[in-house]
């Protein structure tokens, strides 16, 4: 694949195409401070915008992505991006990095499998979170990821929609609470679908 042209990092994220997460200066500053002095491997990096803004703040980031039509990479990249899937990136490069960064990972098993391969090192997740206890179904990663991901720090400075969060955490044993909440949600959804909607007279 031909390398997309490198674009200058814009001063404002307002008109950056290909972003799903919602940048703001306070969050970027908090994230850069949390990652300071660590080598970061980013997967699902898209057009490299997050890697670009973190690099400008002194964070060492290697960005990787499959590059898809939704990330606007054809218009250019904000940071060099190695084209590969998340699992391959962790397998080939993970040993030399301290933190795994994923922003809006796709709803595939890639996030879960890459995170499992990552082991006991920190993972930074930005995106929609599935929480069956509150009936909020996110559009990132899969249930297996959220069943095993254990947040240790939440970034209060991140301001997305209700289902969005920014965390640093680690993979852990599957959560019994997550499984119970999912089963309860599935039972509730099944009961509701078996009753016809009441018609007004």
Task: Write the SSE topology.
Layout: H1 25-35, E1 39-43, H2 49-55, E2 60-65, E3 81-83, H3 86-93, E4 99-103, H4 110-118, E5 123-128, H5 143-148, E6 149-154, E7 164-171, H6 176-194
Helix pairs in contact: 3-4
Quick recap of the structure?
The protein has 201 residues and is α/β, with parallel strands linked by helices. The protein is built from six helices and seven strands. The chain has one domain: 3-Layer(aba) Sandwich (Rossmann fold), CATH 3.40.50.150.
Strands of the widest sheet, in order across it, are 3-2-1-4-5-7-6
CATH class: Alpha Beta
CA radius of gyration is 18 Å
Give the biggest beta sheet: 7 strands, mixed
The share of residues in helices is 25-40%
| Rounded mean pLDDT score | 89
Total domains, how many?
1
What can you see in these coordinates?
This protein is an alpha/beta fold and 201 residues long. It has one domain (25-194): Rossmann fold (3-Layer(aba) Sandwich), CATH 3.40.50. The chain contains 6 helices and 7 strands. It has helices at 25-35, 49-55, 86-93, 110-118, 143-148, 176-194; strands at residues 39-43, 60-65, 81-83, 99-103, 123-128, 149-154, 164-171. The protein has a 7-stranded mixed β-sheet, with helices on both faces. Helix 2 (49-55) links the parallel strand 1 and strand 2. Helix 3 packs parallel to helix 4 (110-118). The N and C termini lie far apart (62 Å). Mean pLDDT is 89; it is low at 197-201.
């Amino acid at each position: 694949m031909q390398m997309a042209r490198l674009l200058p990092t814009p001063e404002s994220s307002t008109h950056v195409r290909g972003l799903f997460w919602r940048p703001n200066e306070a969050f970027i500053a908090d994230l850069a401070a949390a990652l300071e002095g660590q080598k970061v491997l980013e997967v699902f990096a898209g057009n490299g915008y997050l890697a670009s803004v973190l690099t400008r703040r002194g964070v060492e980031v290697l960005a990787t992505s499959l590059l898809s039509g939704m990330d606007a990479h054809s218009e250019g990249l904000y940071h060099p991006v190695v084209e590969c899937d998340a699992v391959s990136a962790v397998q080939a490069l993970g040993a030399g990095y301290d933190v795994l960064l994923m922003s809006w990972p796709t709803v595939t098993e890639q996030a879960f499998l890459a995170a499992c391969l990552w082991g006991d090192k920190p993972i930074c997740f930005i995106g929609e979170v599935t929480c069956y206890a509150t009936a909020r179904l996110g559009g990132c990663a899969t249930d297996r990821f959220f069943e095993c991901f254990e947040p240790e720090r939440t970034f209060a400075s991140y301001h997305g929609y209700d289902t969005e969060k920014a965390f640093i955490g680690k993979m852990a044993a599957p959560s019994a609470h997550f499984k119970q909440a999912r089963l309860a949600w599935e039972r509730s959804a099944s009961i509701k679908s078996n009753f016809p909607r009441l018609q007004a007279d």
